[in-house]
Amino acid sequence: MEKEYKLKVPDTIQRMTEIYHIVGLWKTGNGNVVSLQQASYFICIFGFTLASFVGIWTIDDTDNVVFLVSVVLIGIVQTYRLYFIICEQKGIFDFMHTISINSTADYQTFCNANNKLKKFVASVKSVLGILFLLWVFVVSLPPIRKQLIFDFAFPWDYKTNEWAFWMGHAFVVGTYVISITICMFVMMIWYMMMIFVIKYELLASEFRNLGAAREGNGSVKTVENMTKAQGEKPSRSTKLTKSEAGETSYVKNLVEAIKRLATINGQLDEFEERFSSLFLLQIITSSICICGAIFVLAFRVHDNFFQDAFYIIEIIYCLGDIFAVLYLANEMMLSVDRLSYSLFESNWIVQTQSCKRNIIIMMEYLKQPRSFVVGKLFPMNIETFIAIVKRSYSMFNILGSFKQ
Predict the structure, then answer these.
(1) Which residues pair with 373 in a beta bridge?
(2) Contact between residue 103 and residue 5 where contact means Cβ atoms under 8 Å apart
């Protein structure tokens, strides 16, 4: 029996799910009733979004109003994400567990996939580190300046009343902590997308190794090479027997690989259906936020350095938020496109004519392009990211002409 090399769920992802259970975002039971903790998180993030929305109509500073519009849009996305996390807990957790079960008999492919996961986890840790530094910035800066980072609607006058100031500051810090926790869920989605990339790469390795016997060190060799290595000159009957055995093995493994392909495609369809609305809302709101932040930075009338710093952070966050999902979706589609050539690299040349015809049909099927489209509007790929940046710049020019 061939040795199977299993890919483990990264410790960072496991800790994220544990944190969700510890803080009460995810419940350990199977009940559908929303807990008090979950309701408090939802009220807090929704209240902050509502306070920012009211501030748009009550604050006279134009630059701050534009910033609050961006905050409201981000708040809408975070509120929907929080709703999604709470209401779809069981489905998300079970789906992530299902797609995380992956193994391969090819040691080299296992190493490549494992290294790709390690690089992904390193990127996730970097993002978490940046979010933590921003948390330190949000916590420490207002007490030093005795002024909130930006103005928003609040029941009490936090500009003149010290108690109101500390309450407003605690409200902002608490909302930011909840927002970071929600961002962990976004990274779990990144992880699921990376898993699909790896799944298709493992399948591509199976296609390449069809018709090849595997040695103990993980390398492969064909039936002909084994015969040559043994120094034997097989008879005609022996050749026919080995040819039939090789074809039977090839077809059997090909059928198993096709079944696995159908399973992965079904899981990807479920992923697309489950998270499509989330991606659509994320892309639309982030695009508007990028345009608004660039507009304020280009035509600002204030001298508040810290507000400018937050505009820059907002642009980086929104660009990164869009780029991550579009890049990973693009990688998924590229992995699917490589399957046809991987099957061509298999040991099909020694198979019978009937087997070759089936292989050609399968190759043509694999050549059919697969697209990941959200809301029947945006194909998830790098071209969409470039188009978003271009459209944001065009909108910036239009707003600039009105400003002048």
Answers:
(1) 379
(2) yes
Rounded Cα–Cα distance for residues 108 and 104 (Å): 10
Q: What is the DSSP string of 337-391?
A: HTHHHHHHTSS-TTS-HHHHHHHHHHHHHHHS----EETTTEE-SHHHHHHHHHH
Sign (positive or negative) of CA dihedral 140, 144, 145, 146: positive
**Tens place of pLDDT for every residue, the chain, 404 residues?**
467 788 888 999 999 999 998 888 888 766 567 788 888 888 888 888 888 888 888 877 776 777 788 788 888 888 888 988 888 888 888 898 899 888 888 889 899 999 999 999 999 999 888 888 888 888 887 787 777 777 777 777 777 788 888 888 888 888 888 888 888 898 999 999 999 999 999 999 988 888 765 544 454 554 444 444 444 444 444 444 445 555 677 888 888 888 999 999 999 989 988 888 888 888 888 877 777 777 777 766 656 666 677 777 777 888 888 888 899 999 998 998 888 898 888 888 887 888 888 888 888 888 887 777 877 777 888 888 888 888 777 776 776 666 55
* Cα–Cα dist 1/51, whole Å: 63
Residue in this structure with the two tokens 């789906």, named with its chain if needed: 95
Q: What is the pTM of this model?
A: 0.85
Of 370, 180, 202, the residue nearest 272 (C-alpha): 370
Residue 396 makes CB contacts below 8 A (sequence gap 6+) with: 291, 294, 295, 298
Q: Which pair of structure tokens corresponds to residue 147?
A: 């002024």
Residue 87 is part of which domain span? 5-403
Number of structural domains found in the chain: 1
